[in-house]
Design goal:
There is one protein chain. By secondary structure, the protein is mostly helical. Helices cover 64% and strands 4% of the residues. It has helices spanning 41-77, 81-101, 104-119, 128-144, 150-172, 177-184; strands at 10-13, 18-21. Strands 1-2 form a two-stranded antiparallel sheet. The chain is extended, with a radius of gyration of 25 Å.
Length: 192
């Protein structure tokens, strides 16, 4: 019988079962670190984020302006697949970045807007004020985030917008029961 090479799969046969021994290629790339090495990659990453945290407000303001620009394009040119997609992507990016950048309430408002865009049967029939209130909420939360008393107000605003959006979507989708489960499911809640 030929001897297996170190990279071959070995199969050990027993009376009731087989055991497959697969080689571990990671052993070749693993680097052993001496016990006295005090490098902490997580601490280095956190320190790098801390250094960038001053830029977070600017990045969030850029994202909020992008959301407003997408809505302005829709108001002037109407809904198209492209304009709807840009509005959704702008809101979705805010939803995803908000907690990291320190704006969880803006993320909750953007999440509510994403739900409207995703679940409204006809986006052109969504009241423009409903969309505009979401965009204004994101803008206000991003602009006013430096004031400590605005956190509770921003959380309440996001919660109320979500309630109004859910109420609208429930009525708009009453003939589409397959959407109601997704609409009524919980999602992002603003962090304290």
């Amino acid at each position: 019988m030929a001897k297996n090479k170190p990279g071959d799969i070995e199969v050990k046969a027993y009376a009731t079962h087989h055991v497959i021994m697969q080689p571990n290629p990671l052993r070749n790339v693993l680097r052993r670190v001496p016990d006295d090495d005090r490098d902490d990659p997580v601490a280095r990453a956190e320190q790098a984020l801390e250094g960038l945290s001053g830029e977070f407000k600017n990045w969030m303001a850029i994202e909020a302006d992008r959301l407003s620009a997408a809505w302005d394009a829709i108001r002037s040119g109407g809904f198209s697949d492209e304009s709807r997609g840009e509005l959704f992507r702008a809101a979705h990016d805010i939803k995803g970045d908000a907690v990291t950048f320190g704006f969880p309430s803006a993320g909750a408002a953007a999440d509510s807007l994403c739900r409207i865009i995703e679940h409204a049967p006809d986006l052109a029939k969504v009241p423009g004020d409903l969309i505009m209130h979401h965009i204004n909420a994101v803008q206000a939360i991003v602009r006013q985030r430096t004031k400590l008393d605005t956190v509770a107000m921003a959380n309440e605003l996001s919660r109320q917008l979500r309630g109004i959006a859910d109420e609208f979507l429930t009525k708009a989708n009453r003939d589409r029961p397959e959407h109601l489960e997704a609409i009524l499911a919980p999602s992002i809640a603003p962090a304290e």
